[in-house]
């Protein structure tokens, strides 16, 4: 396998109540893989993604991303890790409605210390390559779902993340917008981006994953290589 980007080893996340949300999961994801995490509601998909993103800590086991242990980082270090290595896309976009599209996309780079001029030019480039350049001055509230998700993907890619994480990126979209986002993720994968996405959308998994991991009750129930569809 190529260089591992993600390594989970015996990773468990337990809450006070109930069985573990994630139970002793070991998983390696290589550079350039596109992995779809599937499974029923409550099976631990978002929990796994949040652990990889450093948004949550395991109760047991380790999470290593790009050679660095991320399970024990302080909050500040964890925020730095996310800015440097991780791009995230969510079901409900999480865009700032008071900012323009261009400013939403530029923000992560400014937070990471990039000069404003350079950030603006990278944002313009990204908006162009994602087909939403004409929306740069608009506010997210007036965009369609598919357009908003493209903006969210542009923002996620701003700092050239090692890893793109997406939790139900088509979950709030109609089928046409969902198709746009599927194609977009597929293109990013073709360009070599490592992607882990959580989805209930089998069409999305089939369109852009090279591998599916099925979670059931916090365990990996299946880990399957997909035939390329192209
Ligand atoms: N903060 C929390 N406190 C207690 N239990 C939690 C918490 N977050 C998640 N859980 C529990 O952990 C389990 C896994 O949740 P998780 O959100 O990872 O599921 P999921 O697979 O993403 O589900 P869905 O498809 O509905 O998004 C669930 O039983 C959930 O109730
Ligand atoms: Mg979830």
TrEMBL record:
Q: Which InterPro entries match?
A: AAA+_ATPase, ABC_transporter-like_ATP-bd, ABC_transporter-like_CS, ABC_transpr_LolD-like, MacB-like_ATP-bd, P-loop_NTPase
What SUPFAM superfamilies does its record include? P-loop containing nucleoside triphosphate hydrolases
Source taxon at top rank = Bacteria
UniProt keyword list:
ATP-binding, Nucleotide-binding, Transport
Give the ABC transporter domain ranges: 6-229
Q: Which GO terms describe its cellular component?
A: membrane protein complex; plasma membrane
Q: Does the keyword Transferase apply?
A: no
Q: Tell me one GO molecular function of this protein.
A: ATP binding
What's the protein called, per UniProt? ABC transporter related protein
Organism lineage reads as: Bacteria, Bacillati, Actinomycetota, Actinomycetes, Glycomycetales
